[in-house]
Amino acid sequence: MDKKINLELLDNIQFIYELALAKLELQSFGESLIIKNGFREFGLKLKNDYTKIDLKKRLAYFKAVDGENTDYYELQKYNQTKSVNQYLTHWIYPYKGKFHPQMIRALINIIGLGKGQTLLDPFVGSGTAILEAQLLGINSIGIDISSLCVLISKVKTQSLDKIDIIKKYRNNYIHQGDLFSSRIKRKVQEEEVNNFYKIAEMIAHSDQKRRGKNFESSYYQNIDKMLLSLEDFKKAKDKLKIVLGETKVLQEDARNLKIKSNSIDGIITSPPYSIALNYVSNDSHSLQALGYDLNKIKEDFIGVRGTGFEKFDLYENDMQKAYSEMYRVLKKNSYCVVIIGNVTYDGQEVDTTQQVIDFCGKLGFKTIKKIDKIIFGLYNVMQKEYILIFQKG
User: Residue 360 in contact with residue 389, Cβ under 8 Å?
Assistant: First the structure.
């Protein structure tokens, strides 16, 4: 294709790492790239196997393609929050350390994943990566040791098909001290329905503990807001003619994946920052409400076991097992993206980023890119992250 496509960057793109990712995702679709108007506009000659429609459907950092709005620009409008990046069901549950969905979409493009292929996130957290893969028509597997993370990720990606029955039971899930002893629970067979109302309760527990909100009023507000987000999801899917990818969410251990070797097309993940952020204590209110003994389950969480500097040895050993498993399940020549940052413990910074690069190199991963990512926000544990792109040799 000789014709050059003109592209306009989204208005809210302002950081260097965003521009770096925007350029990389364009290069994954094009053969030649022209930068115009101070990095706000681009010209692109497409590779033979891509079309303008592909760009509109997939691009993350761009507002328009030849004057026509991208899907991502339109998706941001289906939003029940004040945050531009918490559209559709992305906002559900206030999970610390969430991925930036726009960044994930760009990384999926950069590593070249397409429909029919499978993305793995072995530390799925709140499900951002698998939701973005789903919106791009890419199949995904999300794995986490945390039952709460599995629950959140399932609700975000698997509630849409059950929206009618979820709405039907809206007035039957009544808070009576123990929410799940409500009179209707035993009559509902669909896991997705029970999961939906469980997460509404977990958000209410969080609102009560962290914001001092009334539990019951917060619970019903969450239900209604979540239902509106599902309605948004349905409208966006229909309007943009989105064919959703299949998602599978499993409570398993990243150190021992039950996945066939050389079967995964791409990996995007962020290892737990448990040394700096204790995920068990941070979400203790929700985990306890789900019936878990915190002292027992913390032994299963990477980075939570041990005390003092013993934590670092345990964390490093656990993560080496996880990276080895990621290498094993990934197809040859495919890409693995790790978003990670150095942590500071007792005033000492640990160069975990270089440790990851060195160990993954020994496994056989080739480091393709290392992109600096500055983190902004009052509640961020770390102020700088790195996006590491590896290729399995």
Answer: no
Structure-token pair, residue 193: 């329905």
370 and 386 Cβ atoms separated by less than 8 Å: yes
Torsion of CA 157, 184, 190, 297, to 10 degrees: 60
Task: Give the domain extent around 43.
Answer: 1-75
Q: Are 218 and 248 members of one domain?
A: no
- Choose the final residue of a domain: 22, 53, 75: 75
Q: Please report which helix (H) or strand (E) contains residue 209, including its range.
A: helix 191-211
* C-alpha span between 41 and 37 (Å, rounded): 6
Q: Please report, as a single letter, which amino acid is at residue 237.
A: K
- Decide: helix, strand or coil at residue 218: helix
Residue 244 contacts residue 134 (beta carbons within 8 Å): yes
pLDDT tens-digit map of 175-232:
544 444 444 444 567 889 989 998 998 898 888 887 888 888 888 899 999 999 999 9
38-97 pLDDT tens trace? 788 999 999 988 999 999 999 999 999 999 999 999 999 999 999 999 999 999 998 877
CB 322 within 8 A of CB 301: no
Pairing assessment for the beta strands 62-65 and 68-69 based on DSSP bridges: antiparallel
Which of 239, 261, 277 represents a domain boundary (last residue)? 239
40: left (phi over 0), alpha (psi -120 to 50) or beta: alpha
pLDDT the model gives residue 103? 96
- CA 261, CA 326: separation in Å to the nearest integer? 9
Residues 199, 271: one domain? no
pLDDT tens column, 129-184: 999 999 999 999 999 998 999 999 999 999 999 999 999 888 776 554 444 444 44
User: Are 130 and 141 within one domain?
Assistant: yes
**What H or E segment, with its residue span, contains residue 161?**
none
Section 276-302 average pLDDT: 66
